[in-house]
Amino acid sequence: MDLNNFETLKDWEKWKKTLRTAVNIGEAAGLSKKTIDNIAYRVGNFLSTAVDPENREERVLQELWKAGNDDDRKTLAKLIVKMIETDK
C-alpha cells in the first residue's frame, strides 16, 4: 500500500483494492500468512495514530482499533486481511 499517497485512503473501495494488491504482492513474494497479518497489524498501528480517517468505514476501524487491546488489534488486522482477500 502506498502510504505516501493518502488520496487512496479517501475512498473505501479504493483503499480495499490497494490493500488487496499489497497482500497479493506479499503472497507472490512468498510471505507467509502470519507475516502478512503482522504487517497488517503494524500498518493498522500507523494508520490509527498518524492518519485522520477519511470516511465512515475508516472511522469505525479506527475506533475499534483504539478500543481494543493488543490481541484485539491483531485479530482485527487478520479480519481486515481476510475481508479484502474474499472481497471480489
UniProtKB/TrEMBL annotation:
<dbReference type="InterPro" id="IPR038292">
    <property type="entry name" value="YmfJ/YflH_sf"/>
</dbReference>
<dbReference type="InterPro" id="IPR021637">
    <property type="entry name" value="DUF3243"/>
</dbReference>
<protein>
    <submittedName>
        <fullName>Uncharacterized protein DUF3243</fullName>
    </submittedName>
</protein>
<dbReference type="Pfam" id="PF11588">
    <property type="entry name" value="DUF3243"/>
</dbReference>
<dbReference type="InterPro" id="IPR024702">
    <property type="entry name" value="Uncharacterised_YmfJ"/>
</dbReference>
